[in-house]
Amino acid sequence: MRFSAVLLLLAGSVQAWSCPSLDDPLPRWAFDLETAGLLRPGGILPDDALAFHAGVTASAWRGPLSALLLRSAGPATTVFREGGAVLQLGGGITGEALDAGSGREGRIGTFLLARGSLGGGVRFEERLSVWSGSDEQAPDAFPAEHMGMDKGRHLYVDRGFVALEAGSFEAAFGRIPQRWGPGRFTNLLLSDNSPALDMIRVRWMPSQSLTFTGFVSSVEGDSAKYLTAHRMDLRPADWLRLGLSEAVLFRSDGLDLAYMNPFIPWYPVQWNEREDDNAFLCADFTAFPVPGTALWGELLVDDLQYQHEYDRPNKLGCTVGAGWAGSRLPISTAMEYTRIDRYVYSQKLPFNYYLHDGRIIGSELGPDCDRLSFSVASPALWPVDLEMQASHRRSGEGTVSEGWPDSVSAGGPFPSGTVEHCTALRAVARWMPSASVELTLSAEHSWLRNVGHVPGVSGDEDAASVAASWTW
Asked: What is this structure's pTM?
């Protein structure tokens, strides 16, 4: 099991109040360690995120790093091993109490994990979880999909898949989490904002510098709505990583073999052979120009108007960021700016909105929005990990559900209409005395202006939470 895959799957998403909180996933450490040079750069960033490599050096990070690797390898206990077959079982429980503008709330959740291998390159994994919350929200340590259809307790299949490996080729079948792109705070094409997708995924790594990933997935099984995506990761040098991705959300009564073919470009197919499908192109990079420094960027093309007679606007999204992490001094910083044009993720037909389970498959910011984010973190007081986060977000009146009106034209302000502003400051302290126990304290203050896009309506919000997790 790749350390990075488990690390992502353990990552929790922060619940949002009226001002969305900043993300603080555990993969932050993977990014920081790579930037610091403690992990050999050049890892790939498809849905398994950073692939850990050898090359860890002795430094002040060694204590936190050792615990991180133990944590990413667990939670699981080997209960069976014979020949090439291995079965590991694990689980955990999380309790959380928070005090926010809506009042005091309590949440509790537990999960069961089974994973292992059958030999011959066959591995599997499944996670089931159940939770209850006074505010109908899952604990932060649980994936974002835990909304459920009924009130009260919620049982959910987080993931479950089988992967077959043969040399440089891998095929996986099942419910697999997805996250593509180098962004520290958000991802534009595929993120973990929506639930894991049921998919068939193939991956081919002909060399250490080239990886190809493609999948076809069901978005709404009862309405024949599908998402296909493929990605090429290229590492021409240890200090540079490039990515090129494409995705199409479409509706089909039967198999659409053109879109389900991961080895051809889909945009020409959509433009010349299909109608009303929602297609995206995305390019990204990560660079390490000098030791301890990382630069990254992502460009999402939802629609590019190369014909100007209709005076339609482009639909683009972009992220640029920079980070620093010391190899001897255990401290890291990251700054990132994201802008998403109005009408991105939307389309003229409602069933082609870029949504899964009612949530955007790409960035949780949504269209007509931008955000500047900053964080500084350090495990210098290990086993305590400290992090400070700050952000300023501007949201216009555009939403995914407004579609792509026939009357839309280029020009106009960004963000549009009465702009809602949210400035947030958040502090997080995690105490991890062992790889299986974690206590997290957080506090957040938000300054809001033009709340709900109503001019002059402003206010402050405070929130604090404490969470305890035990895994086995």
From this structure: 0.88
